Amino acid sequence: MKKQKVLTTKEQNKKHILLKLGNEIRNAREKKHISRVMLSHELYDYGFSLSVDSIISYELGRVGIPPATLFIIAAILDMDLMVVRKNLLEELKKFDM
Question: What is the mean pLDDT of residues 63-77?
Fold first, then answer.
């Protein structure tokens, strides 16, 4: 049986923020009716090789998103990063980071 790691408060906060960011991406992608495969292909057209599994990991908050990748995803999905920033800052205030 695998022992579950106990996360520190900072680790929990980071995980929560990554999940919120992933939700923002997934919601924007679904709003535009773009599948993960389609997003992967569009990213490739811009010179970003990103697998569907990587997109899933971003959307589920499993890993952080490199800034350049986030910017191009936001551009493809017509995401307003200032709104995303505002939403994430509100989340940070909830956890007093």
Answer: 95
